[in-house]
Amino acid sequence: MAKNVSKKNLKLISVVLVFIFFLFSGLIPAEAKTKQVIIGGESFGLKLYCKGVMVTRLESFEGKYGDICPAQKAGVKKGDIITSINNKKVKSNEEVNDIIKNSEGKKLRLSILRNEGKLNIDITPEQNSQGEYFAGIWVRDSCAGIGTISYYDADSMTYGALGHGICDVDTGCLMATNSGEILSASISSVTKSENNNIGTLNGYFTDDSIGTIADNTALGIHGKLNTCPQSRIICDVTENSELKTGNAYMYTTIDGTKPKKYEVEIESICNYNENTNRNFIIKVTDKRLLKKTGGIVQGMSGSPIIQNGKFVGALTHVFLENCTEGYGILAENIISD
Question: Would you call 286 a catalytic residue per the annotation?
Fold first, then answer.
């Protein structure tokens, strides 16, 4: 027997039918797909080229009328990035030195990046006691070092590493990236850490390029891979809220080229702020790692951390006063960066 359908029930049926249509048409996913990545842990070499040249030091020299520093007098500051001189792009220390030495004391216009802003500064080189023209600046155009891969993304052929930015050793400023590459590396020895004296991974890197460096941010370096590793550990990426205190594992390389798994403990969660790489505190508890390294050493930054079979984050810093402990960055934060 047919029954009358109320307006309320008719509206409900319409809503259900519309939802079913969108569900089967693919416009509404039946189930959200969990992000998966390939776990890293390998050491790598990096070569990073600055976007111009960075001013690392200002220094006075003996001129005709006493000590002088034309750069400081003009307003140049430590950490400034010189991108061009007289509208000519500069990419190396040698280019800058040659332009200044051949200036004949004429005014030079420097185009500078400072604190993400742009400005022009006019500088007039002066002669030193030997009659050569100087500006009183030391500059750097590149840097190199060893770090650890955090993860690979096979879908996008990208990677993330370090968990912190690459900063100039003299200025502490984040290096503005023009280009760079990551290369295969092998660890030959470890200088063991002690409290107030942090050790290092010692090794070498080859000319075997793994990929390029596209971004250098406060949360790590990212770029494109030449080839993605095969037959490696694939893990779900945990949501930030899933991280718990307790036992976990860290993958890192302290000998040769292959990462190994070591026990760590997540002692506390500091915050979930995506703009910091100090989201939680870890402690190295594995006796093998403690015996070999003393805890955390330079070069281990970026080592991925696994908890309950999921990628939860990466090591970023070591505590100077307690080298068995350090900070970590959450997985979602380093990937979204």
Answer: yes
3-class SS of residue 29: coil
State which of 131-135, 216-220, 251-255 shows the largest mean pLDDT. Answer: 251-255
The per-type count for the chain, helices as H runs and strands as E runs, is: 5, 23
Residue 183, token pair as written in the block: 């290369």
From 43, 150, 193, 301, the catalytic residue? 301
Q: pLDDT digits over 247-263, tens only?
A: 999 999 999 999 999 99
| Beta carbons of 60 and 136 less than 8 angstroms apart | yes
Identified catalytic residue from 164, 168, 193, 337: 164
Indicate the pTM of the whole model.
0.78
222 labelled catalytic: no
Residue bearing the bigger pLDDT, 294 or 337: 294
Q: Contact 289/216 with Cβ under 8 angstroms?
A: no
CA-to-CA distance for 329 and 271, rounded, in angstroms?
Answer: 10
DSSP-derived 3-state class of residue 77: coil
Residues ≥6 apart with Cβ < 8 Å to 305: 248, 249, 250, 264, 266, 282, 311, 312, 313, 314, 315, 328
**What are the contacts of 56-61 at 24+ separation with CB within 8 A?**
56/138, 56/139, 56/140, 56/168, 56/170, 56/171, 57/137, 57/138, 57/170, 58/136, 58/137, 58/138, 59/136, 59/137, 59/138, 60/136, 61/128, 61/134, 61/136
Could you say which of 150, 286, 303, 337 is catalytic?
A: 286
Give the ranges where the chain is alpha helix by DSSP (H).
Answer: 7-25, 70-74, 93-101, 287-293, 331-336
Please provide residue 28's backbone torsions phi and psi, each rounded to the nearest 5 degrees: -120, 120
- Confidence tier at 14 by pLDDT (50, 70, 90): very low
Instruction: Give the span between the Cα atoms of 104 and 102, in whole angstroms.
Output: 6
Identify whether 317 is a catalytic site residue.
no
